[in-house]
Amino acid sequence: MDGLNHNEFSMESLFPELDREATINRCKHFLAVTFPAMVRNSGRSISDLKAVEMDGMPKSPSSENTADRRIVQRLFAEQVVKRTIEAFSHVSDRSKQVLSMLYIEEFTDGMCYRAIGYEKTQYFDKVKPHALLEFADAYLLDDLHIYKERQDSKKTGV
């Protein structure tokens, strides 16, 4: 009656299996390489962000003329920075603390796990990966997730 073939939908087709390790690595690269570059391109610095209130409320974009390529780049960089900070405010408190320490306050991993009171193995095996996966879920400007290839797609070529 509704025109949908419900047999075509499955949990796996709607929510493919996440490649946790690849997603974590993509987030690490984004936060360590892309994010700092976008901060610089936005005309800000990481130290400017230390004072930013992470309230998660979207701010209206500036109304500058976007005809010039450099202005467009700067506006895009500003959106990446804003959405990254917004994503930090949409993760658990522990993950927010880890992400802020590492990518805003520029702590090393060692400084971070000591400051939050975790053992090195617990930090690297659970705490940091969990924070990065939460970030992937919360960052909405681009999909940072990487999904495992479905086995049946290899067989059928789909």
Walk me through what this model shows.
The protein is an all-alpha fold. It has 8 helices and no strands. The chain has helices spanning 11-14, 20-41, 46-49, 69-88, 93-103, 109-116, 120-138, 151-156. α2 crosses α4 (69-88) and α5 packs across α7. Mean pLDDT is 83; it is low at 55-67.
Q: What general outline do the C-alpha atoms trace?
A: flat
Indicate the low-confidence ranges by residue numbers: 55-67
Helix-strand pattern, N to C? HHHHHHHH
Number of strands: 0
Main sheet characteristics: none
Q: What is the distance, rounded to the nearest whole angstrom, between the alpha carbons of the first and last residues?
A: 29 Å
In what range is the share of β-strand residues?
under 5%
**What is the C-alpha radius of gyration, as a whole number of Å?**
19 Å
Structural class: mainly alpha
Count, helices: 8
The share of residues in helices is 55-70%
Oligomer: single chain
Compute the average pLDDT: 83
